[in-house]
Amino acid sequence: MEDLSRFIENINHKTRLSPENMGRLMSAFQVVKVKRKQLLIQPGFVAKYRIYILKGAFHSYVIDDKGNEHTIQFAVEDWWLSDYNSYIHQTPATQFVEALENSIILQIDHQTEQELKDANLELATLFRLMAEHSAAYLARRIVSNLTQSAEERYNDFVAKYPKVVQRLPQYALASYLNMTREFLSKIRNDKVRKKVN
Could you tell me the superkingdom of the organism this chain comes from (predicted)? Predict the structure, then answer.
């Protein structure tokens, strides 16, 4: 049995559910073990699940017509993940969601989530707040890409997620920060040199 205390805290941070509704919510999720490099979502298939990470790391990405990978989001313990456009509208996904490590997730399927929202205002409010949080995150990411230099984006990411940055493959981090691997290496090497001097 997995420790779900962090999941409960995550929910309580968004809104306080009654014990009955917390029980309803928890019984709607399944625990799933995921192997490194396993794809949970891929283009052309409908994203069936909203995912909460109990343990591990994931990234979502797209591949352009030249074969270049563009990382959209990372997710580690206590984060949520899906191809939300596909999940919400139940249309074919455009993103890959891949495990970067052996992981354990909680997942809820779209139909079950809809039934919970339709039957219960408190749970509908929770899922609305989750959607607002995701929208705010994506808005911050867009503004960062439009207004910050590559080095500022890197520094900002490291400051916000110091423990996460060491777990991510360099190619995926560079892609997320909208820079080449070589430029990311240069930024990191410059920082090491500055610390030494």
Answer: Bacteria
69: its two tokens: 């990978």
Pairing label, strands 49-55, 96-99:
unpaired
Measured CA to CA, the distance from residue 25 to residue 120 in angstroms comes to 11
**Helix, strand or coil for residue 30?**
strand
Residue whose tokens read 């191809």: 83
pLDDT(170) > 60: yes
**Helix H or strand E segment including 33:** strand 30-34
Q: In 38-153, where do the E strands start and end?
A: 39-41, 49-55, 57-63, 69-76, 80-81, 96-99, 103-109
pLDDT at 191 > cutoff 90: no
Tokens of 41: 């979502």
Which amino acid, residue 19? Answer: P
Q: How far is residue 17 CA from its own chain's centroid?
A: 23
Amino acid 17 reads L
Judging by beta carbons within 10 Å of its beta carbon (0-12, 13-18, 19+), is residue 147 exposed, middle or buried? exposed
Nearest Cα residue to 130 out of 18, 52, 34, 29 = 52
